[in-house]
Inverse folding.
């Protein structure tokens, strides 16, 4: 039941990793947190709806107190370490060396189907702990029909950041992801992603080793090809939500994209500042607000790994100077899937797109509309999202994919 049998075809040499933050860093964090001053009450921060002006004073006051006095990082580390994790060196084409962290469940079956799960912002590999636990309950290492890999994207938490002397984009993330999967001996893999992970899956599908993709986020402008298509009542509500997000809740993205240096210094100066900036997203982008400790896990790991300044580079690509709203890979014809892809629709996503729109962006062979769930699908609905992925795999097999690395897909590679 160890799930740690590295595939025999691996050329990389991953080393087992266990998270253990140095005690002096833990002590320093709690000291800073206690010294952080809560803002005074204002008209804006005493409103009860966080969708109106952001997190409110009551939440911040209670969360700070809980973080200081009840939250136990060492106990939370035990939970984080409950799944096998690794670090591996990956050398990019220009010689730059990345130190990439990933969680994984390796099957004893050498011909198991590889699936790589890609997270987004303000998430991390922690988003997928629930899915990994669902899989462990469902399959033993001997029976597991998949190799499951969950990388920390470059610059996020336990992975090293991009080079300091050049730009870095989702296309670059895709290249490193493909190097990771091939280096682990896992060619012929499926990509899965939401948020930044979904943006990465688009260029990832251009690599021969990536055979198919499943998405739970597909933010795009209305395509001309869908101008006369029907949009259901529930999808109309989703589009209203997307418009509201664009008008009232997307200022953070412009700040990330246009002044990443400034906001990076601001949020890495105080745990309380980081809490306010990120907790707002976990509260307003979800269907049901997650448990506070789960939110704090993500924020605390960001703090210890100094992630925030290192991971928001992607926003310059889509929200920086001379870019336009909605200019994402999902609406870019260069990245429209020729390979099969699937789409899971969650109604409380920040921008749930109608199925007719999504169909214009590639070879859609599978989809499902859920009646609950939000932006962090893997985090909120691990059982449901995993069921979707397995259902998508079955649809692939029905189309000629038998799960063997050498056979590939009936559809032509894109």
């Amino acid at each position: 039941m160890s799930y740690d049998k590295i595939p025999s075809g691996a050329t990389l040499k991953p080393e087992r990793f266990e998270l253990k933050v140095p005690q002096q860093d833990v002590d320093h964090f709690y000291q800073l947190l206690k010294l952080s001053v809560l803002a005074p009450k204002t008209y804006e921060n005493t409103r009860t709806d966080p969708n109106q002006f952001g997190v409110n004073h009551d939440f911040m006051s209670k969360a700070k107190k809980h973080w200081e006095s009840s939250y136990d990082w060492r106990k939370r580390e035990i939970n984080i370490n409950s799944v096998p994790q690794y670090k591996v060196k990956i050398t990019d084409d220009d010689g730059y060396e990345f130190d990439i962290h990933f969680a994984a469940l390796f099957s004893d079956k050498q011909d198991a189907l590889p699936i790589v799960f890609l997270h987004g912002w303000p998430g991390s590999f922690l988003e997928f702990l629930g899915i990994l636990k669902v899989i462990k309950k469902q399959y033993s290492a001997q029976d597991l029909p998949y190799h499951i890999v969950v990388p920390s994207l470059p610059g996020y938490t336990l992975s090293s950041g991009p080079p300091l002397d050049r730009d870095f984009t989702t296309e670059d993330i895709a290249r490193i992801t493909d190097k990771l999967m091939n280096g682990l001996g896992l060619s012929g893999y499926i990509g899965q992603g939401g948020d930044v992970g979904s943006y990465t899956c688009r260029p990832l599908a251009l690599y021969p080793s990536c055979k198919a993709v499943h998405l739970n986020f597909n933010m795009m402008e209305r395509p001309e090809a869908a101008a006369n298509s029907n949009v259901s009542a529930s999808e109309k509500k989703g589009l209203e939500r997307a418009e509201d997000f664009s008008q009232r809740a997307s200022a953070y993205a412009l700040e990330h994209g246009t002044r990443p240096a400034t906001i990076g210094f601001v949020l890495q100066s105080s745990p309380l500042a980081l809490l306010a900036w990120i907790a707002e997203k976990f509260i307003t982008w979800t269907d049901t607000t997650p448990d506070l400790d789960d939110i704090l896990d993500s924020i605390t790991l960001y703090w210890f790994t100094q992630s925030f300044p290192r991971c928001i580079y992607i926003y310059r690509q889509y929200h920086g100077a001379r870019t336009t709203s909605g200019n994402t890979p999902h609406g870019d014809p260069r990245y429209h899937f020729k390979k099969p892809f699937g789409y899971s629709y969650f109604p409380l996503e920040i921008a749930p797109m109608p199925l007719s729109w999504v169909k214009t962006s590639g070879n859609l062979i599978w989809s499902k509309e859920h009646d609950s769930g939000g932006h962090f699908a893997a985090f909120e609905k691990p059982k449901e999202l995993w069921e979707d992925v397995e259902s998508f795999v079955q649809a692939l097999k029905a189309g000629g994919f038998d799960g063997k690395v050498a056979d590939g897909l009936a559809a032509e590679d894109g």
Remarks:
- The mean pLDDT is 94.
